[in-house]
Amino acid sequence: MRRGLRYASxxxxxxxxxxxxxxCDGLTDPGTTRPISRPVTVQGRTITTxxxxxxxxxxxxxxxxxxxxxxxxxxxKSTGKSGEACPAYIGLSPVSTTLRQPVGSRSLLDATxxxxxxxx
Length: 120
Prior knowledge:
The protein is an alpha+beta fold. The chain has one helix spanning 2-20; strands spanning 32-34, 41-43, 46-54, 57-65, 69-78, 90-98, 107-110, 116-117. The strands form 2 sheets. Strands 1, 4, 5, 7 and 8 form a 5-stranded mixed β-sheet that branches. A 3-stranded antiparallel β-sheet has the order 2-3-6, with no helix packed on it. The radius of gyration is 20 Å and the shape is elongated.
């Protein structure tokens, strides 16, 4: 019976390690594109929104400007080092991008979903 307990403990430890360390290899993580689900604000040429990030994550907002549209892409990337434990929390992080030209009459689009975004 002790042998079975030892294997169960090892399995529990592996499961716990897997839950504590997912996606903590910042060297190979290209980032995950996410839909923009929070309000977008425009001030001059700067566009800002917020997104949820976890312990070893960072977020980046980029824009592709065209004649009638500005397409926004939100990417979340792991920043932890391989084997490093990441804090188990989620918080809101502001992300911004600066355009070459003000938005003006152009439409804001979420590049991930194709949805039109309203700005404040």
